[in-house]
Amino acid sequence: xxxxxxxxxKALKEIVNGSEGATVAPAAQNKTVTDQLxxxxxVAPAAQNKSATDQLxxxxxVAPAxxxxPATPAAPVAPAxxxxPATPVAPAAPAAxxxxxxxxAPAYTESTxxxxxxxxxxxxxxxxxxEILGEIQGDVEAAGSVRVSGKVYGNVKGHxxxxxxxxxxxxxxxxxxxxxxxxxxxxxxxFAKNVAVDGKVKGxxxxxxxxxxxxxxxxxxxxxxxxxxxxxxxxxxxTLKSRREKADFKVFDEL
Length: 255
Hints:
17% of the residues lie in helices and 32% in strands.
């Protein structure tokens, strides 16, 4: 107890003696006290965060690229085979005689019909087809086809003319075909590209391409056509003339 009191008194004396020798400015004292109370952190927060981030996030290691495989050498190209020799072309055959172009029948939707029991005296002209079941005393002309199953006393003209069980007294002209069916009787000449007769005709027949006469045909008159065909049983009384090229007859000059 006595020793502690002595030490305290000794320390107090030293403090008093020291304070007499040096005076500390209040600002310096405050700074010293502040410096003791406030201590700067050893590591800046940013540095700490950066260190923690570097520890948590690690960059993945990049594997080294594998060496490229060596290129496969190209296969050798086989040499081209020699071309086969060209086959000689046979000379073209001589062209056959060109026949007249076929005239197709125009398609007409309008038709004029002369019904059975009707009698007309005068000329008939139609832009389409005409069908005659009655009797006409006069010429008949149509841009389309004409079909006669009645009686006509006059000339008949059309793209095609067909006569079926009829009576016609006059010439018949067609751009394409004329047909005279059985049970038909006609008195007059026929002018057409092709003519087929299976009825009775008194008059001359002129066909640009062909004229044929079936077994029931009866013709009294001359026939002139490029080709003529007469079926067994047909009767043709008159002169037959086939219009052939003159070159066809040169064979006789060589005899």
